[in-house]
Amino acid sequence: MAEADLLDVPALDKAAGEEFLQEAFGVILEEAVRRGTDVAEKVCDWKEPEDLRHLLDLELRGHGEPQPQVLQRCRDIIRYSVKTCHPRFFNQLFSGLDYHALAGRMITETLNTSQYTYEIAPVFVLMEEVVLQKLRELVGWGSGDGIFCPGGSISNMYAMNVARYHRFPDCKRRGLWALPRLAVFTSKECHYSIQKGAAFLGIGTDNVYLVGADERGKMIPAELEKQISQAQVEGAVPFFVSVTCGTTVLGAFDPLVAVADVCERHGLWFHVDAAWGGSVLLSQKHRHLLAGIERANSVAWNPHKMLTTGLQCSAFLLRNTSGLLHRCHSAGATYLFQPDKFYNVAWDTGDKTVQCGRKVDCLKLWLLWKAVGTEGLEKRVDRAFACTRYLVEEIKKREGFQLVMEPEFINLCFWFVPPSLRGKQAQADYWERLGKVAPAIKERMMKAGSMLVGYQPHGSKANFFRQIVTSPLVTRQDLDFFLDEIERLGRDL
């Protein structure tokens, strides 16, 4: 075909494309949804990296492959991926599948639009504001601002950046030259994104003051006061305090009211990293864990964790109503945010962010919320607590299982002590030997594909398991299996 004639027909075969999609959706439904949530199937089909590279044939070539081979590629990709929707996947702070949220994700991908202007995303610009307003109401604010971000780490960085701009607005134009040495305060149990954010924004990790925590992992307000005084003595200017609601390992909730009092006395920005624990606000039974969150200046909250919306769905919420988020980040690109559009350009919200192209993250949460209502989301949160409570009581009945502490959230931290170590706590190498048990059990379960659960050391504590249940597909049978499997895999260690 002559080059000029190439333009007379589409470059894609629509009929063949639709046929491929029909078959591909069938593969997704069967392999990822049905088999991926079937307890009789493996959580993961473990392969060593070089073996997996060979199995997948990842090489990219000059010629395309026939449709049946491409469909087989789809099956292989799903087969060798970890099934995070599996009822026995307990490894992360996210897990499980919600069918309505998945439909939202598929619609989002198919429409393939960017969230930056009403012109190109009218439905989603309006939808995002409705969802953010609902989240702010749960925090306890009647008004405010916000934006969906690509993950809780970025939400925390936004908080730090907005707080700095609020205190020193000249920094947007003049940069670090306009700033004194700034000091950030957060708990020793904080998420590592606080230090990453300080590095990224030029504040520096040396200027992140880590405040002491008690034995349950909660920030000690008196220690915060001491660190603020210490920073001032060292010539730094305190401006930002970040507390955590749901620490990554222990699931601790910092004392918000007491910390808010400290922030008010010193005129500091009060940020709550509730990326993990924010969804507890939906539960009338458990929301007391976040008492005082309404006093925050900003909040990070990840519905993709407890609410199973799917990655990613992370909200940055702001109590300020003065347009602070827009003033801090706007660049006013006239090719995108033209001021003379025929509609109200206040709906062009993209200049609130440091991104240009921005994925639609609100639809999956909106569709889920529409389907089950606030009551359904509350039941989902309460059920996660009930699963953890059940496991706690079962652990107390079983020989060889030892709680690290009684959980107040759904982070269940425990050791499994194999028969060879029971009654030998007095031996000098006891904790060193116990610390090798969790990694050995983890290796065995991954190679068997039976389940997945995380472990880690913590301070002076040897490696222990951290089990998380968020999936609404998990049943009592899965919880019993979890404990039985730990015991089975570790009894000979």
Automatic annotation (TrEMBL):
MF (Gene Ontology): pyridoxal phosphate binding; sulfinoalanine decarboxylase activity
BP GO annotations: carboxylic acid metabolic process; taurine biosynthetic process
Origin: domain of life: Eukaryota
Organism: Alligator mississippiensis (American alligator)
Keywords from the named record: Decarboxylase, Lyase, Pyridoxal phosphate
Pfam short name (any one): Pyridoxal_deC
SUPFAM superfamilies found in the cross-reference section: PLP-dependent transferases (SSF53383)
A GO CC annotation given for this chain: cytoplasm
PANTHER family registered for this protein in UniProt: CYSTEINE SULFINIC ACID DECARBOXYLASE, GLUTAMATE DECARBOXYLASE-RELATED
Protein name according to UniProt: Cysteine sulfinic acid decarboxylase
Residues carrying N6-(pyridoxal phosphate)lysine: K305
Subunit composition and interactions: Homodimer.
